[in-house]
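Recap from last week: sequence in, structure out.
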Amino acid sequence: MKQDSEAPSFKNSIQREFVAIFFLILAGAILFCVMMNETLLEKYYIKNKKQVLYAAYESINRAFAQGSSDTDDFQIEVQRISGIYNISMLIIDPDSEVLVSSENESRGLAFELQRYIFGSVFSEEDDENIEIIEEQIDYTIQNSYDKRTGISYLEMWGFLESGNPFLIRTALEGITESVRIANRFLIYAGLLAALGGIFAILVVTKQITRPIMQLAGISRRMANLDFEAKYTGKEKNEIGILGHDMNRMSDKLETTISELKTANNELQRDIEKKEQIDNMRSEFISNVSHELKTPLALIMGYAEGLKMDIGEDPESRDFYCEVIADEAEKMNTMVKELLTVSQLESGADLIQMERFNLVDLIKNYLQSASILLSQSGADVEFDAPDALYVWGDEFKTEEVVMNYVTNAINHVGGDEKKIHISVTQDGEVARTVVFNTGDPIPEENLPHIWEKFYKVDKARTREYGGSGIGLSIVKAIMEAMNRGYGARNVDGGVEFWFELETKA
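Predicted structure tokens:
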């Protein structure tokens, strides 16, 4: 698998640390062994040789005490011990006759034994070549050096329980030189072992560091929020456990970050919605203030005029009162419309779904609005079937029709002032369209006409006393009933439409 982390140099790698630690441990072990050889090996060697002498002494002493020294078995045992442990043994009687000897030529051993027994024949030079190691009543253990042959011996001589003099000795075989040879060999072997060990540790540590580098790459990608990286090793050791734990941590982090992003997105939307609501509230207050400013100014002005008796004649006072009443009525209508929109948008004004005849509803409204229609001078046409039953809130549907027709009356124009209302059925949907001739609505304004207080032509709206709330009431009602509505420019004018369901 390709590693995502750049491999460190050998100087900074774990491999170098492993090799250095291994080499120091191996060098320390070799040095320790050399020091042990120099200080303890000779003593250990002599101690073992002393044990051999003790064993031989016990064997021959026991044989003479039991009277079995004349048997062939004893002679064979003497030869066996001498051969195995490389020792020489000599036992003589009080007349210096050889009783037991491990060598064919025993005169030299007999001479040495006599010299030790009769110490008076020692010269001062002989004393310098003998080092007493242990001295007991029955025997003496000593280290002697033969100048003629240059050989050192470890000797044990004395008297058996039977009274026979004995001499047992073994050559020390140049133990000092052996120690030096052993140390040199140990150093050479250690160097070869170090070279082989370094090669082996490089191979082993490479196998160890490979998954570690993979984990480092995964951690780097996780730091960059890339959670596709997964540990693929099959190890069952600590590295494998760490790798699989990192996989679980990666999955958990991805899930957690996803949840955090979702929560953050929702929070952001809530903040934006709150800002939007705050802006709408500020805009609403501004619009209401603006809409109320003119009628309030008129009411205050005419009220002051009445108070100051500017209009002294009855006609002037009646005119002032009519203006005040008219402006108050406009304010009252606007407040009612705002309350209606607020209740619909907040859900406080519940929709009562019922089945009613849409055609009769429109006919009844047109009849009640006949005076307004005639005053507009528009030619009104109503095209619908005899009856069409739909599902919806009958009262609020009438309010939608009223706002559409009122809007058409206020904006009807052109050479042929015409308002056309139609009701058609398409499957399970009944569509009502209110068309009026006149100027089209600028395309960039179409999405905004449903907003409260939005006016395409503010001067004209003021002229007929519109508040800019009627279409926002339509929007609130139709969305509360979950039905479609809209407006579009067509040839010769503008049409507004809404839809209701015909089947339960």
